[in-house]
Amino acid sequence: MKIKVRRSLLAAATLLASTLGTTAQANPALVDASLKDASLRYVESEVLVQFKPGMQAVAQRALNSMGLQTAKVLRSAARGADAELHLVRLPAGQKVTEAMQKLRANSAVKFAEPNWILSTAAAPNDPYYTNGSLWGYYGDTSPVKTNQFGSQAGESYNAGRKCNGTVLVGIIDEGVMNTHPDTQANVWVNPFEIPNNGIDDDGNGYIDDVNGWDFKNNDKTTFDGTTDDHGTHVSGTIGAVANNGVGIAGICDNVKMISAKFLEGSGTTEAAILAVDYITDLKTRHNLNIVATNNSWGGGGFSQALKDAIDRAGAADILFIAAAGNGNIIGKAINTDKKPNYPSSYTSSNIIAVAALASSGKKAGFSNFGATSVDIAAPGVGIWSTVPTATGAGYASYDGTSMATPHVTGAAALYASLHPGSTAAQIKAAILNSAVPTASMAGKCVTGGRLNVSGF
Ligand SMILES: [Ca+2]
Ligand SMILES: [Ca+2]
Ligand SMILES: [Ca+2]
Ligand SMILES: [Ca+2]
């Protein structure tokens, strides 16, 4: 299957559609193409069903008559959605493709699709503790002279161009350690929620969501131990406290980070949609200055429901910064112009798709690329950041487009700090326009270059 993504041309149309409050047409052809890829997995007993506006009652009757049970209402008319999105459970023995076919034939159903299984886009390597190795933070003034391909955040920081503590980002991932000494100060605390009183004080549908929410386990604990290492690692690159004599420095060292945990080992499209919408709702409900979400994950095929959620974030001026992906399981990088990687390959105008660069300036061997479907490269090999350990808190070096992505999310927060009131489109343009041309990325991404925050 071939998809030609021309994001710059699509941007205006998508933005217009969002402004008018319309949703994109479902694309069953893309879902069906994904279903032909045997490497993509989905939950065998579930289907996501998007109703048409005003058709709740009819659609509900149709589900009942097909023996399908609603397991969860992801978007409900009672909570203001113009059309409902349901996760339905299939009767024993019924195949997902069978149920999808029946549902698609029903006039009250806008689309039906699999609940894809998603995972992080990282591969850990052996941890060690040393300084001068935070190459992604530096650029041409790196203490290690051969490592000049970093984000230039250190140069920006030393020149006094720093984050100002007014910006928030969402981390859609595993959980984020909320007691790590290097990031604790930047873990968001919901000021509209009284902790542990058993009441949903801010009325967002989540009781006692103090640091965010855990959509994997449907509970308020966004940090559940050493299995939340990937999310914690991402958080350090974005927002570890700089100049505190401890560990590492994040790109935006006083950003506030909201945890929308939906992965633990793996996750699903269903949980990802809830996580994306949670952040969008927080921004609109409380007028929070949330500028981006970090999405260092992928897998699964095309999901119209997830793309719709990403577009809702875009309409709320939230960038969706996404890992370009690490090729397939044997580590072979993919040209995502030819074979899409979701969510980074969705055509939503608020997406920035990020490839991974090694400290030598070479594209990481595992990193996907795409002249039109990937936007920019950022440091993603040998990246030191925060992790939970068996005995508390520590640091580890990980590889992946997962690690490249938070450099760009941190950059978005830094730009928003230095240019208050910027729209998502302006922040995206600034990040892409300041990329440094890099030989290994020529013709392999929209900018042909790497992240550079020193010009912000
Ligand atoms: Ca709440
Ligand atoms: Ca409460
Ligand atoms: Ca939990
Ligand atoms: Ca630090």
Automatic annotation (TrEMBL):
<dbReference type="InterPro" id="IPR054399">
    <property type="entry name" value="Fervidolysin-like_N_prodom"/>
</dbReference>
<keyword id="KW-0378">Hydrolase</keyword>
<dbReference type="InterPro" id="IPR006311">
    <property type="entry name" value="TAT_signal"/>
</dbReference>
<feature type="domain" description="Peptidase S8/S53">
    <location>
        <begin position="166"/>
        <end position="435"/>
    </location>
</feature>
<dbReference type="InterPro" id="IPR036852">
    <property type="entry name" value="Peptidase_S8/S53_dom_sf"/>
</dbReference>
<feature type="signal peptide">
    <location>
        <begin position="1"/>
        <end position="26"/>
    </location>
</feature>
<feature type="active site" description="Charge relay system">
    <location>
        <position position="173"/>
    </location>
</feature>
<comment type="similarity">
    <text>Belongs to the peptidase S8 family.</text>
</comment>
<protein>
    <submittedName>
        <fullName>S8 family serine peptidase</fullName>
    </submittedName>
</protein>
<dbReference type="Pfam" id="PF00082">
    <property type="entry name" value="Peptidase_S8"/>
</dbReference>
<dbReference type="InterPro" id="IPR034204">
    <property type="entry name" value="PfSUB1-like_cat_dom"/>
</dbReference>
<dbReference type="Pfam" id="PF22148">
    <property type="entry name" value="Fervidolysin_NPro-like"/>
</dbReference>
<dbReference type="InterPro" id="IPR015500">
    <property type="entry name" value="Peptidase_S8_subtilisin-rel"/>
</dbReference>
<dbReference type="InterPro" id="IPR023828">
    <property type="entry name" value="Peptidase_S8_Ser-AS"/>
</dbReference>
<dbReference type="InterPro" id="IPR050131">
    <property type="entry name" value="Peptidase_S8_subtilisin-like"/>
</dbReference>
<feature type="active site" description="Charge relay system">
    <location>
        <position position="402"/>
    </location>
</feature>
<dbReference type="InterPro" id="IPR022398">
    <property type="entry name" value="Peptidase_S8_His-AS"/>
</dbReference>
<keyword id="KW-0732">Signal</keyword>
<dbReference type="InterPro" id="IPR000209">
    <property type="entry name" value="Peptidase_S8/S53_dom"/>
</dbReference>
<keyword id="KW-0645">Protease</keyword>
<feature type="active site" description="Charge relay system">
    <location>
        <position position="230"/>
    </location>
</feature>
<keyword id="KW-0720">Serine protease</keyword>
<feature type="domain" description="Fervidolysin-like N-terminal prodomain">
    <location>
        <begin position="34"/>
        <end position="115"/>
    </location>
</feature>
